[in-house]
Design a protein that fits this description.
The protein is an alpha/beta fold. It is 45% helix and 19% strand. It is built from 20 helices and 18 strands. The strands form 4 sheets. A 6-stranded mixed beta sheet has the order 5-6-7-3-8-9, sandwiched between helices. A 6-stranded mixed beta sheet has the order 14-15-16-12-17-18, with helices on both faces. A hairpin with a 2-residue loop joins strand 8 and strand 9. It starts with a strand and ends with a helix.
């Protein structure tokens, strides 16, 4: 057991955050903590980490508990380089290494000095216990997996962006290996490659994991338990996010039926009481039923709480269809910067978008996804010779992932009036209300809004536009899970044309019909959704339904014995071959780890990436070989 919460309650002033929280974190748990913004998730994490004390209840911590907590704001040492920050995790190991070197030098000068040999063995045992010879391998592997090899490990932390610093903070926690790792929105700022590496790493993590995330794909792949925080209560569900949704809905349906059945029973009993209480012949029976009513009301069936209403998003209210050929682009180059700093991200792009297409643009950070959208919309100048043609009847809306285009000095309501100056106040306020911006919220200035509120304001602008073509850049950023689900459903139902940039793999697996991948200065096009794209690039065939093997006729005792001897001989040969393969793979992994730890690899990020990819591949093969060897040895 890592930690246990018993009847935990917390309030701030007169505001109750939660009460009666009961939950446990076991040694190998993979827990996803979900709930709308403001539900109390961060408060609960602060109580678990000891940053806050509960008003009531008990927190019990395991004797070997160590907690690593990655907040959305990274806490790194300013002035350090990337490598210095990672090496600080192993300060004790480097100190032991220096002491071992000093002891070796001292023993070479005074081999008979008393106590030196004993001290050397003591320090060496501690050094080996901390896996000291593998420290540089661990650092290089984690930094490469988290996407820092191309920076060069000598780069100052101060020169990293906020997102990069968050990634580095996660890398540092992975190296620290606490028994309970707590991550707050770890998937923000990660491209697909880094995200896949992180998921693989966390899947094999030896400690417990508690993660707050709005990434449903991440929660599905990683978590075996979901904690839902809502209405001041914590409910624990087994399974991943998809299973949690199923169980939550089943529970609500069951509770609703129990509640309705009890209310119907109370109404029936009450009707009998009302009719028969005043009659002498039936008074006792009526009184008995009244007592039954009192017992039912004393232990009422809980009525399911209405789920906090997500926004209402309608996108299909456009009046006219465009022509069939919505967009044609030829010989388009996508570049950033000016003059000597100008850098081409894509060259010679040819695109065709038909009416009804739903296209997702994917790729690593900095590959030009957002810049491509802006070039297509004319918000950035196209190169000479490029041709971009939008079809007749196209009415497009653009959702910018940033909020710099919003005037921070305007109120929420005035922002809509800026876009729609001829509209009356009532329809504008109705739209804002549908987005969860109600009452006094409409008079807040944009500068006072949270990231989620700004996102919903931008969605309100899109919905009012009634466009038949939507260009969306990271539309699910800053949205809570419920709002993401509503937006996803609206985009699935949208009958117009969609081009969107997104890192939301759950969305990518449900909405697009085509994928544009940006990589290596090229744009590649794939049919289907994200899973289809993954299958295509990995070269894996479509999964086939497994056929049942034919039932063979019974063999005679002699034939069965002959077959058994042949099978036993084959098993012995495979056992010997697998044993050799395990030894070979262990040697290859060791050799690659030495290369990863070398100064040459640290100085060449492409080489380091290649080596790390090779060692991960060899480790997977080694794990499979060891499993097979164990099977054969039984």
């Amino acid at each position: 057991m890592q930690i246990a919460l018993e009847n935990i309650g917390k309030s701030f002033g007169s505001d109750l955050i939660f009460r009666g929280v009961n939950a446990r974190v076991e040694d190998q748990d993979r827990i996803g903590l979900v709930g709308i913004n403001g539900a109390g998730k961060t408060t609960l994490l602060n109580i678990i980490t000891g940053g806050l004390e509960p008003d009531e209840g008990t927190v019990t911590r395991g004797s070997s508990l160590s907690i690593g907590y990655q907040r959305q704001n990274a806490g790194l040492q300013k002035g350090n380089t990337i490598l210095e920050e990672m090496r600080s995790v192993f300060a004790d190991v480097y100190a032991m290494e220096e002491e071992l070197q000093a002891l070796r030098e001292e023993m070479s000068k005074n081999p008979k000095a008393p106590g030196l040999e004993d001290r050397y063995k003591e320090v060496e045992d501690a050094f080996l216990a901390r896996d000291g010879y593998q420290v540089q391998v661990k650092i290089n592997t984690v930094l490469t997996g988290m996407g820092f090899a191309e920076h060069g490990f000598g780069k100052s932390i101060d020169k990293l962006s906020g997102g990069e610093q968050t990634r580095l903070a996660i890398a540092k926690l992975l190296l620290e290996q606490p028994s309970l790792l707590i991550l707050d929105e770890p998937t923000n700022h990660l491209d697909f490659k880094t995200l896949g590496w992180l998921e693989d790493y966390l899947s094999a993590y030896k400690g417990a994991l508690l993660v707050v995330s709005h990434d449903r794909y991440f929660l599905d792949r990683l978590c075996g338990k979901i904690w839902e925080m809502e209405y001041g209560e914590l409910t624990v569900f087994p399974g991943n996010y998809t299973r949690y949704i199923q169980l939550r809905d089943e529970r609500n349906i069951r509770q609703q039926k129990l509640y309705e059945a009890q209310q119907a029973e109370i109404a029936k009993l009450q009707e009998y009481v009302d009719k028969n209480l005043v009659r002498a012949s039936t008074t006792k029976m009526a009184q008995s039923r009244r007592r039954m009513i009192e017992r039912l009301e004393a232990e009422p069936a809980e009525k399911p709480k209405a789920r906090m209403k997500p926004p209402i998003i309608h996108l299909n209210e456009y009046a006219a269809e465009p022509v069939k050929d919505v967009l044609l682009a030829e010989s388009l180059d996508v570049a950033v910067g000016e003059g000597e700093k100008r850098r081409t991200l894509l060259s010679g792009v040819d695109l065709a978008v038909a009416r009804g297409d739903k296209i997702a643009v994917i790729g690593g950070n900095g590959t030009g996804k957002s810049t491509l959208l802006k070039c297509l919309l004319g918000k950035l100048p196209a190169n000479p010779g490029a041709r971009i043609t939008w079809g007749r009847g196209v009415r497009s809306s653009y959702y910018d992932q940033g909020s710099d285009h919003l005037d921070s000095s305007l109120t929420v309501l005035d922002t809509l009036w800026e876009y729609y100056p001829r509209s009356y106040e009532t329809p504008l306020r109705n739209m804002l209300g549908a987005m969860g911006l109600k009452g006094e919220d409409v008079f807040k200035r944009v500068s006072q809004l949270s990231g989620g509120e700004k996102a919903r304001l931008k969605l309100a602008v899109i919905c009012l536009a009634k466009s038949n073509v939507l260009i969306l850049d990271e539309p699910t950023n800053h949205l809570d899970l419920a709002t993401k689900e509503v937006l996803e459903a609206a985009l699935q139902e949208f009958t117009g044309t969609l081009i969107m940039v997104s890192h939301d793999r759950y969305l990518l697996d449900r909405v697009p019909t085509r994928i544009w991948e940006l990589e290596g200065g090229q744009l590649r096009q794939y049919k289907g959704r994200y899973t289809d794209y993954l299958r295509t690039v990995s070269g894996k065939p479509e999964p086939k339904t497994e056929e049942k093997p034919e039932k063979k006729p019974e063999q005679s005792g002699y034939s069965k014995g002959k077959e058994q001897r042949r099978a036993d001989a084959q098993r012995r040969r495979e056992y010997a071959e697998t044993e050799k393969l395990v030894a070979q793979l262990e040697a290859e992994v060791w050799s690659l780890e030495q290369q990863i730890a070398s100064p040459e690899a640290a100085a060449d990020y492409l080489l380091l990436q290649d080596l790390c990819a090779q060692v991960e591949e060899k480790r997977d093969a080694l794990s499979r070989a060891e499993d097979r060897w164990l099977e054969l040895s039984e």
